[in-house]
Design goal:
globular; alpha+beta; six-stranded mixed barrel; 146 residues; 18% helix
């Protein structure tokens, strides 16, 4: 009986508590996962939380030099080069959208991407405000040499 309780507490403190404490954190060094669609290969790049731009930023200048258009399909990312295509998947409902990096941010801890209002609408996150997402980067396929 004492050994069963001891095993339970060891399991609790070594597995369950660390898993619960680490939920919602950004994962960056993951095993590459590839998905092929038509002539595009998508590689899993990052997981984390997504937010979207305020409607009040419409018309303001972005880091790329373009003006923010709330009806465009683009995003802000901290590191990826401007022009990079990203497939954003809302993990709550499975909806996805393809956006282009045109700005820098977000700068809040745990956030990996800011979406334009139109992109946020397409993944159905306007009501939630912050949702868990996966970011997939577009990679062109090399021609088969078989």
């Amino acid at each position: 009986m004492f050994n069963d309780r001891l095993r339970f507490f060891i399991l609790l403190f070594s597995v369950i508590i660390p898993v619960l404490c680490c939920r919602g954190q950004v994962q960056t060094n993951m095993e590459p996962v590839l998905i092929k669609t038509d002539s595009v290969q998508w590689q899993l790049y990052e997981k984390g939380q997504a937010t979207y731009y305020s409607s009040r930023t419409h018309g303001r200048m972005m880091a790329s030099g373009e003006r923010y258009d709330k009806n465009g399909l683009f995003c802000a990312h901290k590191k990826l080069p401007f022009g990079t295509k990203i497939r954003v998947v809302n993990k709550k409902n499975g909806k996805e959208v393809i956006v282009v990096v045109k700005d820098r941010g977000p700068f809040a801890k745990g956030r990996v991407i800011d979406l334009s209002n139109k992109a946020a609408e397409k993944v159905d996150m306007l009501r939630d405000g912050v949702v868990p997402v996966e970011l997939w980067i577009e990679k062109e396929l090399a021609e088969d040499r078989d």
